[in-house]
């Protein structure tokens, strides 16, 4: 049993998607069974979750569902038009996080103490990364540049500082041309 769930909410192209903020609380309760503890029927043992095209209309339902996934190890979020801010709080377990092609994303807050792999492709947004002590592999692809008009180098410095222990860091060409090369 792979314990994998794919949820795709694509309905075709939304011309003007309603913007929303999304707060996901993952692994909020201790899933370890005790001799007297029996999992509730609403607890799902999903290890991998792929979410595509979550929108303003579906994000609360998805958040409620995801809060019951106490064994989640891998989360992928893609093509969420209208997603303006994303906050992921994880008490434990989440090891792989991928966020791709969410064109309106302006801020991303992640607190994940077991995260070992992080992939991000989209506009350079405001990042707050906490608890990434075990992060070994990261990919940052901001090929379309910053998602806001006033780009300041210290924002990128804070992002790299949060990833200072990463063993493998993959950066796109835009980062090298716009940020690193002027300093060389």
TrEMBL record:
It comes from the Eukaryota. InterPro entries: At1g61320/At1g61330-like, LRR_At1g61320_AtMIF1, LRR_dom_sf. Residues 46-171 form the At1g61320/AtMIF1 LRR domain. Pfam families: LRR_At1g61320_AtMIF1. This is At1g61320/AtMIF1 LRR domain-containing protein. It comes from Davidia involucrata (Dove tree).
